[in-house]
Amino acid sequence: MMAFVIRRLLYAIPTLFGVCLIIFTLFNLVGGDPAYQMLGKHATETQILELRRELGLDKSKVEQFFDYLKSVATLDFGRSYTTKQQITDMIWRGMPASLSLAIPAFIVEILLGLAIALLVSFYRGTFFDRAVVVLCVMGMSVSALAYILFGQYVFAYWLGLFPISGYDTDILYRFKYIALPAIIWVVVSLGINVRVFRTFVLDEVNQDYVRTARAKGQSEKKILFHHVLKNALIPVLTYVVIQIPVLITGSFLLENFFGIPGLGSITIDAIHNSDFPVIKAMTTIETLLFMVFALATDLLYSVVDPRVRMR
Amino acid sequence: MICRLSMRYILVFSLLALIVGAACTPRRDIGNTLRVAQREKIKTLDPAHANDFFSGTAVRRTYEGLYQYHYLKRPYEVVPNIAAAMPAISADGKTYTIRLKQDVYFQDDACFPEGKGRRVVAKDFIFSWMRLADPKTASEVWWALDGRIVGLNEWREKLKQGDANSGTSHYDLPVEGLKAIDDFTLEVRLTREDPLFIHMLTMPATTVLAREAAEKYGQDLTTRSVGTGPFVLERFEQNQIIWTRHPKYRLETYPSEGEAGDREAGLLADAGKPIPFVDRIIDDVISEDQPAWLNFQQNNHDYLVKIPKDNAKNILTDDFKPTREVSERGMKLLSSPGVEFSYIAFNQTDPVVGGPKRKFLRQAMSLAYDEAPTIGMFYLGLGKKAESMIPPGVFGYDSEYKNKYREFNVAKAQELLAKNGFPEGKGLPELTYDLRSDPTARQVAEYFVRSMAKIGIRIKLNQVSWPELNSRIAKKQAQVWGGIVWVYDYPDPENGLQLLYGPREAPGSNKTSYKNPAYDVLFEKFIRTRDDKERLALIKRMRSIYEEDVPWIVAVHRNENRLTHSWLHNLKVHAFEYNSDKYLRVDAEARKRVLER
Known about the structure:
The complex is a heterodimer of chains A (311) and B (597).
Chain A: H1 2-30, H2 34-39, H3 45-55, H4 61-74, H5 87-122, H6 127-141, H7 144-158, H8 171-205, H9 208-215, H10 220-241, H11 244-248, H12 252-258, H13 263-272, H14 276-304
Helix pairs in contact in A: 1-14, 5-8, 5-10, 6-8, 7-8, 8-10, 10-14, 12-13, 13-14
Chain B: H1 7-24, E1 33-38, H2 53-62, E2 67-69, E3 78-80, E4 88-89, E5 95-99, H3 122-133, H4 152-161, E6 178-182, E7 185-189, H5 197-200, H6 211-217, E8 231-236, E9 240-245, E10 252-253, E11 274-275, E12 280-285, H7 289-297, E13 303-305, H8 312-315, H9 324-328, E14 332-337, E15 340-346, H10 359-368, H11 372-378, E16 383-385, H12 410-419, E17 431-436, H13 439-453, E18 459-464, H14 466-474, E19 480-487, H15 494-497, H16 517-526, H17 532-549, E20 552-554, E21 556-564, E22 568-569, E23 585-586, H18 588-596
Parallel strand pairs in B: 1-12, 1-13, 17-18, 17-19
Antiparallel strand pairs in B: 2-3, 4-5, 5-7, 6-7, 8-9, 9-12, 10-11, 13-21, 14-21, 15-19, 15-20, 16-21, 22-23
Helix pairs in contact in B: 10-12, 16-17
């Protein structure tokens, strides 16, 4: 087990290097020169040169890339070009807001998706199953933006059930701001989750052990909830755990429309402003989280299914 | 019992609890609070870095400068703020002696002994301006003082070459042109006669900051503030900023004079009363149109900056008047000409569209571009076709003036195109038009492409990010570009005219890199001239030069718009007075009645 973990951690190094290289290349190709962006409309050539020197942009691309790798290795991303705030402070301040929205929405999204998937699998081939699948496809075909605009207009403005937008650092008041975006999150994700989970469950339904259980005369309900569900949990686990890093780094659209000061909106601002230190911090964190959670998924396999052994 | 409940029931109950809980959370009493929807994020509260409207507004809530613009008078007039009076200017126009008010205090803060804010003295301004010049500050707004004060640039150079780790001791070095005669008298010596200097003293960049605060908080001043202004920062969040009334704010009063019509509009009802009127300001940052408009309709904000374009149909009729619903609910649309102009620019260093040889091509393109329909199509009908780069409200604006290449005349355009060797566009390579990723910029660009196609000019659009567009323009890589607006920093024509001054070519503010020695000579004379008659004559001469050369197609002067509720009083759109909110009065009772309905 330990050898497996160490080996996976070592694999992470070239992966992270590759991601850094891609981000650095993309930023230098299409990101624009931050000095022009920062100094604004009155910038003179001298000021631009001075600022480029100050930011280290006058160094060769190779040197700049190694500076970037150094900041990734030390997790010291410095200050934002735009806000001049410490990036670590920005992340610590934005993370609770992103998580306040993401955690409840994600839990409900997964549990509800799984419950419906099991239900439709139980009634597979019936009108109910087909109707749910059609609804899921319809739900997936509608843009998330449409759900946001509709939800904000109907439930917040027209019916007055929720605030239109906003966020409060006070937990008691925060709840009312998070409710509507969380519900929209669940609705947006439900279609795809039900379809994916239904596939996982139906894959198991056709296995030999299910036929054996049926031959032994066990009820369909018992087969589904006792045997099939346990075995379907492995792909479900992969699917769920790998999404966790995205939760932490925030939802761009929901945060922007609902005025939630999370990491998603910080990232969007950074892209708009060519704020490379923030972009590299966010991408690095997301990559690291992906790798950590991918490893965690593999480790969890052995917990869910004792037949799986880490080598 | 619970164990027996299926997962479905638990989930349904959870969702219901979420909805009921959300709906039942109590609404806080807001009292005498002004609630504003800011349409962009506040990037910084540090005066040395505030280079956009929204950051400037936030900075001026809490930081003050020596001068400000009169809130009501038009044309815009500079009046004292922390200064006790207008400066005494020497006969050669180079020395300014400024007396300070003696009852101006910094807000209480831990950076001061025992946390008590001290009185503002002349040395504080010297420190603040040196901080702006300090290369370590890397200020985006250093241009406001660059080259203006004797010895300040030399001090900056000395720092650049000297020891960067010398702490703040370099602030004790003297700057020849900055002298505190006594605690309340500041003497500033300028490098040349500079009629624009007074405008620099109204800007957020030149407001006063305590040295104690700069030393204690350093770069963290981006989210903190220690100013002298009418409001004190209570909380700074990415999506919301809260300000409370500065308890030690000196006695300042609402203006007693305005321009014609202000009295009738009720703008002088509070004349002579102490300001600020509100106890608290809540700035909600809402960048998207729908939530901004819905929140305003739901009375969650007292006024709204910028009309949400996506909801324009609910706000304006087809002939660009407020809709019946807007009027019936007592909402008001305040719209006045913005001090700005939009343009489509030609890179003057580009061999295809730039330089004197391609003057007729540019003239033809200007004539083929019919601006009039664009105001209704892209700007909600709230704007004015531009004839020159001097907008309404700025000295030198001439409402009678018609630019001879801004009329819509396709026949004449074709004639000029042929004169330049491209009859019906033949022989002219496809041009590239750069634009940023923005719906309005795209719409304007598509309209431009269609207009040029009518005279046989083919245009390829190159949509890029805003930073990339900036880089391409600064590096002279863009050929033709549009969707860009020049917003005046101060109400003097120099701010627009300098955009074509040769020595400031890209990456400087002359983004087209236009060069015409005759224009440059006139401009250099203009910036030293104080006599209005002479200035006007120079403006006309410069205008005739750039009109003929067409380095850009001046497009539109957009309006500055605000939507307000009936309980908000004293709001008048002001292009330069960032801290207008100190003049606003909320009728909290009237608002409460509406909210309780």
